[in-house]
Structure formats: structure tokens, C-alpha cells
């Protein structure tokens, strides 16, 4: 799990506790990397984009 300081800088002082974090990756796609990357080197676009995080999803709890 990589920590995103911006998210944590806001959440932790507000009393939230990190329960988990998920970073689902981009699946293989014929569109990965956008048209310029796919036109010039589709193999490199596949390597660069497949599996990289598509989002960071935090699971927080807070006790009032």
C-alpha cells in the first residue's frame, strides 16, 4: 500500500483512521495510453499502462 499524503493530511487530523487502501489497476485495453501512444508504440503503451493504478480507494473509520 502506498500512502497518499494529500488524502491522509486531510483525513487523519479530522479523526479518521485508515482501515485499508486499494489501488485497482487498469486492465489491458486497446485504448491504453491514448491514441498518440498507441499509434507510435502500442507495445510500450501496454507495458506502461496495464496494471498501473486507475484509482486510490481509501477505507476510513471514525469514532465520534
In brief, what are we looking at here?
The chain has 64 residues and is an alpha+beta fold.
Tell me what you see in this structure.
There is one protein chain. The protein has one domain (5-62). It has helices at 5-11, 34-40, 42-49; strands spanning 16-22, 57-62. It has a two-stranded antiparallel sheet. Helix content is 34%, strand content 20%.
Q: Percent range for helical residues?
A: 25-40%
What is the alpha-carbon Rg in Å? 17 Å
The H-and-E topology, N to C, reads as: HEHHE
The tally of strands reads 2
Counted up, domains total: 1
Number of helices: 3
Bulk shape: elongated
Largest sheet: 2 strands, antiparallel
Task: Quote the average pLDDT.
Answer: 82
> What class do helices, strands and sheet pairing give?
alpha+beta
Beta-sheet strand percentage?
15-25%
Tell me the span between the first and last alpha carbons. Answer: 27 Å
Q: Which terms would index this structure?
A:
alpha+beta; about 60 residues; two-stranded antiparallel ribbon; single chain
Topology:
Elements: H1 5-11, E1 16-22, H2 34-40, H3 42-49, E2 57-62
Antiparallel strand pairs: 1-2
Amino acid at each position: 500500500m502506498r500512502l497518499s499524503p494529500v488524502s491522509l493530511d486531510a483525513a487523519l487530523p479530522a479523526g479518521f483512521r485508515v482501515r485499508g487502501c486499494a489501488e485497482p489497476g487498469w486492465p489491458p485495453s486497446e485504448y491504453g495510453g491514448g491514441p498518440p501512444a498507441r499509434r507510435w508504440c502500442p507495445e510500450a503503451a501496454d507495458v506502461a499502462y496495464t496494471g498501473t493504478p486507475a484509482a486510490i480507494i481509501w477505507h476510513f473509520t471514525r469514532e465520534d
